[in-house]
Amino acid sequence: MITIKPATMTEDWPAIAQLYFETWQVAYRHLLPEAYLKQLTPATWQPQKRWQHTILAFSNTTPIGIVTAGPSRDEHFATFGELYSLYVHPDYEHRGLGTRLLHAGLELIDGYPQQYLKVLVNNAPAQQLYARTGFSDTRQRLVIPTPQGDFTEAIWTRKNFF
């Protein structure tokens, strides 16, 4: 049985960091430089730092999905709510869980008149999901330089219709 619930301080944060690691290795294997993915470890993520802005999906007691959202971290979008992250374990993809988590995450930022997110420009499946919930591409791009190779994110926004 899959359950979705807000995170608490006492979650199994190492298991949730592992969830991030595993989803990145599969979801981004053709989207990010291979050398970039190889240098990541579960310790790359510190999800407990944002626990108040986190909703988790579980299969029994195993974390299988996560969404995080809250106030904008970018001064250019100071009045926006931001969808920080959305990940579903590869074994649970294509079952509607991503959509359920996205809606739960949007509830976290429901009080903001506009919402935004960053998505890889070459991540068509994620872009399709966001478009179905009213997000649109602003055509603004952020190039993320790394020693292993650059990648580019697109900024998508939507108006919140209270």
Task: Explain what you see.
The protein starts with a strand and ends with a strand. 27% of the residues are buried. Strand 2 (54-59) and strand 3 form a beta hairpin. The longest helix has 15 residues, at 13-27. The chain has a single domain (2-159), classed as Gcn5-related N-acetyltransferase (GNAT) (Aminopeptidase, 3-Layer(aba) Sandwich), CATH 3.40.630. The chain is 25% helix and 34% strand. The protein is an alpha+beta fold and 162 residues long. A seven-stranded mixed beta sheet has the order 1-2-3-4-5-7-6, sandwiched between helices. It is globular, with a radius of gyration of 15 Å.
Q: Concise description?
A:
This protein has 162 residues and is of the alpha+beta class.
CATH homologous superfamily designation:
Gcn5-related N-acetyltransferase (GNAT)
Structural class: alpha+beta
- The strand count comes to 7
Arrangement of strands in the largest sheet: 1-2-3-4-5-7-6
Count of domain modules: 1
Shape: globular
Largest sheet geometry: 7 strands, mixed
CATH architecture: 3-Layer(aba) Sandwich
Q: Identify low-pLDDT runs.
A: none
- Would you state the CATH class? Alpha Beta
> What's the total helix number?
4
Instruction: Please indicate the percent range of residues in DSSP E strands (runs of 2 or more).
Output: 25-35%
Helix content: 25-40%
The CATH topology: Aminopeptidase
Please report the distance between the alpha carbons of the first and last residues: 32 Å
Instruction: Output mean pLDDT.
Output: 94
> Mind telling me the C-alpha Rg?
15 Å
H/E element sequence: EHHEEEHEHEE
Domain N-acetyltransferase: 2-162
Keywords: Acyltransferase, Transferase
GO molecular function: acyltransferase activity, transferring groups other than amino-acyl groups
Protein name: N-acetyltransferase domain-containing protein
